[in-house]
Structure formats: C-alpha cells, structure tokens
Amino acid sequence: MAQLTRDDVLRALDQVVDPVAGRSVVHEGIVQGVVVRDGNVGFALEVDPARGRDAEPLRKACEDAVARLPGVLSVTAVLTAHAARAQHRPRPQEAAPRAAPAGVPGVNAIIAVASGKGGVGKSTVAVNLALALSRLGLKTGLLDADIYGPSVPRLLDIREKPESDGKKLRPIEKYGLKTMSIGFLVREDEAMIWRGPMVMSALTQMLGDVSWAPLDMLVVDMPPGTGDAQLTIAQRVPLKGAVIVSTPQDLALIDARKGIAMFQKTQVPVLGIVENMSTFVCPHCGTESHIFGHGGARETAHRLGTAFLGEIPLVPKIRETSDAGTPIVAAAPDSPESRAFMAIAEKVAQVAAAPSRAAPKIVLE
Ligand code: ADP
Q1: What count of Cα atoms within 13 Å lies in the side-chain half-sphere of residue 294?
Q2: Mean pLDDT of 247-268
Q3: Is 18 in a helix, a strand, or coil?
Q4: pLDDT digits over 116-171, tens only?
Q5: Which residue puts its alpha carbon closest to atom 16 of ligand 1?
Q6: Which DSSP string corresponds to 178-222?
Q7: How many alpha carbons fall within 13 Å on the CB side of residue 225?
Q8: Residue of the CA atom closest to atom 19 of ligand 1
Q9: Staple 131 to which of 99, 119, 142, 329, CB 3.0 to 4.6 Å?
C-alpha cells in the first residue's frame, strides 16, 4: 500500500464542508499544520473563537473523513482560535481573575511542574515526581504540556501511538503511570510551528479527551517560562497547585520568582520550590560540592512565603537514566536520588490532599 501523504489528507478534508462558510474546510483555508507520521495524522482547524464548541461537530467530521482513508491509524484534529480575531481578544494578562475552571472528572488533583526558564530539569523532576507519587500508592498520570519541546516520549522511551476507544484517547501506561504527550502524536518540529491558541486547544483536548480517570494525581509538565502560553494554562487548567523547579544559580532563581508570581496572579497555590542540580556529587569519590552556590532556592522560598520542597543533586546517573528512558525513580528506586524524589512526593501528596483553597504554606524564620 502506498504511504499515506499530506495530500491524501487534504483531499479527504476537501470533502468536508463547513456549514458556516458554505465551502470545504480546505477551500476556506482553516486547515493548518497537517502532519502525517506512520499513519498517524494531526492537524488544526482555525475557527472564529466566537464559534466555540459549536465547531466541535465540524472537527469531528474532519477527523472522521481522514479516519476513513486507508492506512490511517489515528487522527487528532484540534480547534484553534482564528489568528486575526484572536488579536481582538483580551490578552491573558488582561483577562478577568481566574474563575476556577471545571475539574477533570475522575481526576482528584492536577499539579503543575513549572520553571521560569528552560534547562533547569523541569521535565526530569516532573517525570520522577510522578513516578515517586505512583510509588507512594497514588494512581498517577503525567501530562506533557511542553508542546514545543515534549520530552516525555524520550524520558519514558515511549514509541507507540495512543489508541482511541471510540470516544477518547487511551493514555499510554509505563512504569505504572498513565501518560499523554503531543510528542506521541506529532513530530517535535511540527509542534514548534504551532501558535499559542493552537497549543491551548491541544492541551484542552489532552485533558478532556483522554481517558485519565480514575486518578489521584495528574502531574502536568508545563512549557518552560512564564509567557502567555503558561499563563493561559495556569488560568484555564483546574490546577490544585504548582511546583516550581529551579537551579541554585541566581539567574534561575530570578526566573523562579517570576514563575511563582505568575501562579499567584492566577490564584493557583504554589506548593513550593524544588532545587535541582543542587550539589554535585563526584561519581568517583562521592564528594559533594556546591558548584553553583547552594541554598538559594531554600532562601528564596522562605522569603517569598512558599515552601521549600527539597533538593536533587546533580549526578550523571539522573541524566543517563533519563536518556535511557528509565528515569532514576524507576531504574534505581532505592538510590539516594530516588529517595530525594520520594521525600518531595510525600510533601506534594500532603499538600495536594488538603482542601482546595489552602493558602500556600508560610515559613517564618
Ligand atoms: P527542562 O525540562 O527544565 O528543560 P530537563 O529536565 O530536560 O530540563 O533537563 C535538562 C538536562 O539536564 C537533561 O539532559 C537532563 O537529563 C539533565 N538533568 C536534569 N536534572 C539533572 C540532575 N539533577 N542531574 C544531572 N542531570 C540532570
């Protein structure tokens, strides 16, 4: 059988008429970012935001039209706000304070793992924290919301594609975790060209159209930074709290402060700061050294009235196990590094189990 191509997909979509425009979605020019990968197809439909959920039948019709093509294994269509109109919408910063978004049925608590900038180990912490929560006996999920640089497929060495049960996508299970990532569906370089509204739409679907339930905890690996995309997620995803990852360097801590401020602005409780790459442990002699300075995150946490959740050393084993797709908490659950993640998970589990509007813990010295 000839390989499925982008043109095949566009031809199928050209048969779908948008009742609002009275012409095919391809003709109307609302089909964006078509990706085809080994029979898995993804694309976005750029619609006027005023149509909202009314565009859902159109989305479904497009998915169905593509699904009928021979050789198609999965189809994911996302709705995204029309760019020209989107500019007239209030920017997230100007939006009204967060009216607590509706929860995800069957998911008890959603926790964001965030960082003020990239490269501080946010994804490493998110995946190991999720594994540690699972080892505590909590039914745990991991949602990779880092749309522009999804790392969960690599960190958990997942190559298979999620399947649909007819209504929802089934998350992929690995090491007892249920996980979903845009990286399971589209290529990284394809996700890179998506714009903000498209990202939000993909995320909304990864929350609502995936059979997560039942879960005690859903850990969300946020995109790095504190821009509009992150702020929108903080506003629209029903987060029970956020964990901020920082390295001890001053610069990262300034960014961590921005991260904390962003969540406070949207009234999401900051559960605390994790200091990653805290100390360097020499792999040969076991000596610890503080190559970046040390204790900065603890001080910052105290100063900002949030909790200090713990520190993770800089050890090659953490990177190596991540690169091998067996994160340290799965590969070496009794190692000192895993124990550090377990201690953090215990704190997160406690805070997350507290009533929803619990104020962030204030530590006075
Ligand atoms: P982010 O999600 O913040 O961009 P990553 O989790 O991808 O960061 O980590 C960046 C790099 O640093 C990766 O190669 C990762 O394996 C490595 N890394 C993260 N934390 C540690 C650590 N504690 N010790 C050693 N390497 C680490």
Answers
A1: 13
A2: 84
A3: strand
A4: 888 889 999 999 999 999 999 999 999 999 877 889 999 999 998 888 888 888 99
A5: 319
A6: EEEEGGGTS-HHHHTT--HHHHHHHHHHHHHSB---SEEEEEEEP
A7: 10
A8: 121
A9: 329
**3-class SS of residue 27:** helix
* Residue of 315, 319, 321 to mutate, ligand 1, most atoms within 8 A of C-beta: 319
Expressed in angstroms and rounded, the spacing between residue 302 Cα and the centre of ligand 1 is 25
Residue 100 tokens, joined: 């607590």
> How far is the C-alpha of 279 from the C-alpha of 273, rounded, in Å?
16
Q: Which residues share a beta bridge with 312?
A: 276
Calculate how far, in angstroms, residue 319's C-alpha sits from the geometric centre of ligand 1.
6
CA angle (137, 138, 139) in 5-degree steps: 120
Give the per-residue pLDDT at 291: 58
**pLDDT, tens only, 12-56:** 999 999 999 999 999 998 887 787 777 878 887 888 767 767 888
Substitution candidate for ligand 1 out of 322, 323, 335 with most atoms within 8 A of CB: 322
What domains sit in the chain, N to C, each tagged with a CATH number? Answer: 9-86 (3.30.300.130), 107-352 (3.40.50.300)
Specify the residue with its C-alpha closest to ligand 1, atom 8.
121
Put simply, whether the predicted model's pTM sits higher than 0.70 gets the answer: yes
List ligand 1's pocket residues with C-beta within 6 A. 115, 118-124, 151, 224, 276-277, 312, 314-315, 318-319, 322
Tell me, what DSSP letter sits at residue 340? H
